[in-house]
Design goal:
It is a single chain. This protein is about 35% helix and about 15% strand. By secondary structure, it is α/β, with parallel strands linked by helices. It has one domain: TIM Barrel (Alpha-Beta Barrel), CATH 3.20.20.70. Helix 6 runs parallel beside helix 7 (about 255-265). The longest helix is centred in the middle third of the chain and has 21 residues, at about 160-180. It starts with a helix and ends in a 26-residue tail after the last helix.
């Protein structure tokens, strides 16, 4: 099978700022809820090692909290202590040792804001309560004293001192990420977490310098972005996951995403990844194949920044067509990689491209049915 131009698009090289990526495939950051006090462990070791050998051009580490109360759950990864940094160094060193040639590694820095202090998803994800087996709750912070939902606790509205501490926490985490050698550092400005909360009028009811009109609601994300730009070396790439729409009346829409993407581009950020939703409960999100791709396409077309599409992307030809049609420069997959850590190998074989196989696994090349037992192997 020969590769068509559409097929080759997914496996074409991409330059973002000073870095080159061997293909357009990204392992999306996926929370594992398996850390202890923010510290990575053997679960993260095996998780990232198998994804590192996948052949994806970029492997993103899960959303990583910049301070302890910025975690979603007690199991969330953090980068706010020497212990957490040392543990992640071990994991990253092991992942690099087995990675496909050219694979880059990135980390997504975030803060849960009012969506923190929750139980892990497989126990329901509800707000933590005092005395429960899930661990002690903590007081969350947010732009305004508005709970995420009626059954959630009311967060503390951040004052100027609190905002200053938050900015310092992002800087500290970014410095640690630089020391660890991450190629890409990504700000999480989506999914209803703190920076998204500041941007969305559904969560930000402030009337000071950090809220009100769109420019003031964008201010915190842009201030942190500008500050990180001063502390992250020029040989790394800064990016952001942003919100294409809140899927709710009175919330953010695609024009807001375009505006933010342009500002980030002007600050020297290399890319945006366009996601959507989850800042309030009850949105009508039209989940389905590629349901956010049109948002990425609009941001790419109107902002000129390198753009990543994510959400409902699962099949190789679907991913290739997104790139070939110019809707996005990269595609990010999450659950498909959990279901099949060899997704890139399958995509290459399906599209007629020669995949990379680690030497010990080359004898599995091209298998489409259970292998016959061979005592000579």
């Amino acid at each position: 099978m020969s590769a068509s131009p559409t097929s080759l698009s997914l496996f074409s090289e991409l330059a973002i700022g000073p870095l080159r990526f061997p293909n357009r495939i990204v392992v999306s950051p996926m929370c594992q809820y398996s850390a202890r006090e923010g510290v990575a462990n053997d679960w993260h070791l095996q998780h990232l090692m198998q994804l590192a050998m996948s052949g994806a051009g970029l492997v993103m580490v899960e959303a990583t909290a910049v301070e302890a109360r910025g975690r979603i759950t007690h199991g969330c990864l953090g980068l706010y202590s020497d212990e957490a940094e040392a543990a992640l160094a071990r994991v990253l060193q092991a992942a690099r040792a087995v990675a496909a040639p050219g694979t880059r590694f990135g980390i997504q820095l975030g803060h849960a804001g009012r969506k923190g202090s929750a139980d892990v998803p497989w126990h329901g994800g509800a707000p933590l309560k005092a005395g429960s087996d899930a661990g002690a709750p903590w007081r969350c912070s947010a732009p305004s004293a508005l709970p995420f939902a009626p059954d959630w606790d009311t967060p503390e509205a951040l004052d100027e001192a609190g905002i200053g501490r938050l900015v310092d926490a992002y800087v500290d985490a970014a410095r640690r990420a630089v020391r660890l050698g991450f190629d890409v550092i990504e700000l999480h400005c989506a999914h209803g977490y703190l920076l998204h909360q500041f941007q969305s009028p559904l969560a930000n009811r402030r009337d000071d310098a950090w809220g009100g009109d769109a420019a003031r609601r964008d201010r915190l994300a842009l201030h942190i972005a500008q500050t990180l730009k001063k502390h992250v070396p020029s040989d790394r790439v800064l990016g952001a996951r942003i919100t294409g729409t809140d899927w709710a009346e009175g919330g953010l829409g695609p024009d807001d995403a375009v505006r933010l993407a342009r500002r980030l581009r002007d600050l020297g950020f290399g890319y945006v990844c366009v996601s959507s939703g989850f800042v309030v409960r009850g949105e009508r999100i039209p989940f389905g194949p590629g349901f956010q791709v049109a948002l990425a396409a609009q941001v790419r077309r109107q902002s000129g920044i390198t753009t990543r599409a994510v959400g409902g992307i699962s099949e190789p030809m679907q991913a290739a067509e997104i790139i070939a049609s110019g809707q996005a420069d990269q595609v990010a997959l999450a659950r498909p990689f959990l279901a099949d850590p060899r997704w890139v190998w399958r995509a290459a074989e399906t599209l007629g491209v020669t995949p990379y196989y680690p030497a010990p696994y080359r004898r599995a090349a091209g298998l489409r049915k259970p292998a016959t037992f061979d005592r000579t192997q």
